[in-house]
Amino acid sequence: MKRKILSLACTGCLAAAAAPAMAQPPEVTASEVVEAIEGAFGATHGQRRNHTKGMCAGGEFVGTAEAARHSRSPLFSGRPIPVVARFSLAGGNPKAPDTARSGRGMALEFRLPQGQLHHITMLNTPVFGAASPATFRDMMLALRPDPATGRPDPGRIEAFKASHPDHRAQAEYFAHNAPPASYASSAFWGIHTFKFVDGKDGVTLVRWKFVPQDGETRLTEDELKTAAPDFLERALIERTARGPVRWDMMVSIGQPGDVQDDPTVQWPAERKQFKAGTLTIATASPQKGGECEPINFDPLVMADGIAPTDDPVLRFRSPAYAVSFAKRLGER
């Protein structure tokens, strides 16, 4: 995995190996992106730099026979797989209001047999806000507060929007869709394209979405004005106290020509889908001292049977998460 990630840091790694002096610098480094996030939101001591505000949850996942036909991953054995989950708000502000028109995250660590782990990290939007790490960095730079006002400069934000069309799809989604009324009633998308690998090494390109069995509900205009700033944590704790919360993992199968390396572009809605399993969340708790708190939910932690594509954002997330993780460990 390290070799694959490293390949993104040069143009033509074989040529670079033969002639190091000709190697090109990376478009953007993981440290640059994390520093840009810190510049936009500040750095909360000992905490994640992005998706700082969050909570823990726990439960299990049971895969389906249909998924097992496409992937040899033990995730789809049909047996219950223990899961540690984290729900969160995008951004580095630990006091961000739960009514903010920003992303909500679901991160899952599947604890497979023989000590194996598999991570899935998702957003409550069908697309991401950047087709490249550089766009994400530039978005954070545009959000950096002006020292004179304490707020981002509107002109700088407009300039970013005009020069980065790959940001528009997610921005339009936020503009036309109110935030979820509960984590339990929110869908979550995998955003990226992945590969399911079967027992004969056959590859199926897939994207997935976790669909809440409670149904999807969003805040009304009145609720956007009156909801408490931290209602999401309380709502999920109260909901799990009444009984388990479930999401169905729905997988779409790619066709030739479907985008594999751009998380800002959706696949056509008519792609064939199948149910790959059901996630059950039985407990929820505050993040502080919770089981999810120390986990680095690196999306490239994958068990055999599921593999990444060459999506540059997906590949970049692992080193960026590592930089953030090292920072918060060093602050303890």
Automatic annotation (TrEMBL):
Signal peptide: 1-23
Single annotated GO MF: catalase activity
Needed co-factor(s): heme
Top-level enzyme category: oxidoreductase
Keyword field: Heme, Iron, Metal-binding, Oxidoreductase, Peroxidase, Signal
GO cellular component, as recorded: cytoplasm
Domain Catalase core: 29-332
Annotated heme binding sites: 321
Active-site residues, Swiss-Prot/TrEMBL: 51
PROSITE patterns, sorted: CATALASE_3
CDD domains: srpA_like
InterPro entries: Catalase, Catalase_core, Catalase_sf, Catalase_SrpA-type_pred
GO term, biological process aspect, one: hydrogen peroxide catabolic process
SMART domains hit by this protein: Catalase
EC number: 1.11.1.-
Family: Belongs to the catalase family.
Function: Has an organic peroxide-dependent peroxidase activity. Decomposes hydrogen peroxide into water and oxygen; serves to protect cells from the toxic effects of hydrogen peroxide.
Protein name: Catalase-related peroxidase
Organism: Pseudothauera rhizosphaerae
